[in-house]
Amino acid sequence: MEPLYGNTHGLKAEQNKALRALYRRRIDRQTFISAPVARELTELSRDTGRRIGLLVDRQGTVDKVVIGDAHRVFLPDLGRWRAGEQRFRGLRLVLTDLRQIGLTEDDLTDLTLLRLDAVAAIAVDPGNGLPGTIQWAYLLPPTDDGSTPRHVERVDAVHHWDLDWLDFISDLENQFAQPTQLRQVEEGEGCILVGVSMEGSRHAAQRSMAELARLAETAGLQVRDSVLQARKKLDGRTVIGTGKLQELVVRSMHVGAEVLVFNRELSPSQLRNIAESTDLKVLDRTQLILDIFAQHAKTKEGRLQVELAQLRYRAPRLALMPTAMSRLTGGIGGRGPGETKLEINRRRATERLTRLERQLEEISKQRELRRARRKKNRVPVVSIVGYTNAGKSTLLNRVTRSEVLAEDKLFATLDTTTRRFRFPEEREIILADTVGFIEDLPSTLVQAFKATLEELEEADLLLHVLDASDPDVEHHKGNVEKIVAELGLADRATMLVWNKCDAADPVEVDALVRRHGGIAVSALEGTGLENLLDTVEHALFRGALAR
């Protein structure tokens, strides 16, 4: 027996039977709704006093029969939608209209968020239950300003509706797909970046969105669009509000995106609400960074640290499974050493957290022994710190003639790398390359990488490497100094290194050096390194640090 969905309580046996019989009705593929089916639908609606909805597929088959109250219909879960060649869901919604007011805002919201082919409301004559005027709506491709228009129109009667439905919906889907037909298909999920700027923070938000785009590309996502919304205050449920979410749904259909990436950490309830409202995969900034860390961690310690950070992030979100979390995990945002732990319950997650913390504590003790030996041998330690992608690993490679991975990607280095360097006068130092910092570094990451960052505590000198070619370099400088201070190292001797001077305006570089001090170099070309090493040697062995 075919199921009825929604408000079925109190239906008479003959009403129940008649409603189930709707599943056996067939509509010509080229017709939106046939006159006999429309009449049967409106007469049943008048008889029951309830609004009735039919979900019809493109073969003309009734997929679901939904019963509401006199005002609205609550649709059941239609299953997971995926971006692809067919950009709409392949279902149209035909509703009865007992109050003869046409489509409601709830109907239009369902059209957008559920990616329905179209939605129509058929007026019910209160006297005889016959079908009257029809109001129907469908989505249009987004405009250049990012808005998502819907076209709504009226038809006098079902007998006067000569629409060729199959041709219409095929043409509409082609309009949505047109911008992406010329785009080369590349590996990786398509995403839309989503940011919010509060009053007075527009420039900061734009800078943050540019960094989010780099994070997304580093993680392997294909950035298809970027949306920055100005708000006076955040929406507690969805951050950006229902209206903007509807725009994003249509935009995702237009550009072929399956992922929304938010430029802030979302609460568990916000993740759930956005995922359930849009049927898209949802990532926040923390999750994106965790995924990059999972890709780049190579050593046992690095992998343990990533798993620890992932578990700390996911622990409060385990309650969301299996609905919202099924959209949040797998692939980007869900890989790495911790991905097999996604289905563990809270108790097992807590046990795993305890074990990881114990293992990392052991590693920390081993590091402490190695540092003690170095201290006994009186080998100075110089730690290289800086904003991610400032060129720290390139500098280490150039100075020590090593082959540490150095890529034009964020967080290319996660595991601390140490190399010995010998000065001409048989003096040695240890150069340590550390993980790059980033603005608003999630606290879970700082905690998880505590063992790695402990290397900084034993440093005799910090080389703060900055990307002189970055227009936001002074802002990045402040962020790194803030994190260094939070680690209790604000009083540590620090030398500024203005890297990538080959790619920067010489006048700007000179101004930075005059304003903040430090040395201008190009680690890539080797420019200025001799001066840098002379300055380091003098500071460690002949200057104030040597005393």
Beta-strand residue percentage: 15-25%
- What structural class results from the helix and strand content? alpha/beta
State the share of residues found in helices, binned by percent: 25-40%
Terminal CA distance = 90 Å
Give me some keywords for this one.
19% strand, 3 domains, single chain, Rossmann fold, 547 residues, alpha/beta
What does this structure look like?
With 547 residues, the protein is of the alpha/beta class. The chain folds into 3 domains: 4-181, no CATH class; 186-370, GTPase HflX, N-terminal domain (Rossmann fold); 378-546, Rossmann fold (3-Layer(aba) Sandwich), CATH 3.40.50. Helix content is 40%, strand content 19%. The protein contains 17 helices and 17 strands. Strands 1-3-2-4-5-6-7 form a 7-stranded mixed β-sheet, sandwiched between helices. α3 links the parallel β4 (91-97) and β5 (118-124). The radius of gyration is 30 Å and the shape is elongated. The N and C termini lie far apart (90 Å). The model is unreliable at 179-187 and 321-330 (pLDDT under 50).
Topology:
Layout: E1 4-6, H1 13-21, H2 35-48, E2 52-57, E3 62-67, E4 91-97, H3 105-113, E5 118-124, E6 131-139, E7 150-155, H4 165-181, E8 190-197, H5 202-219, E9 222-230, H6 242-255, E10 259-262, H7 268-278, E11 281-284, H8 285-296, H9 300-314, H10 324-328, H11 346-376, E12 381-386, H12 392-400, E13 417-422, E14 428-433, H13 443-448, H14 450-457, E15 461-467, H15 473-486, E16 494-499, H16 506-516, E17 519-520, H17 529-542
Parallel strand pairs: 1-3, 4-5, 8-9, 8-10, 10-11, 12-14, 12-15, 15-16, 16-17
Antiparallel strand pairs: 2-3, 2-4, 5-6, 6-7, 13-14
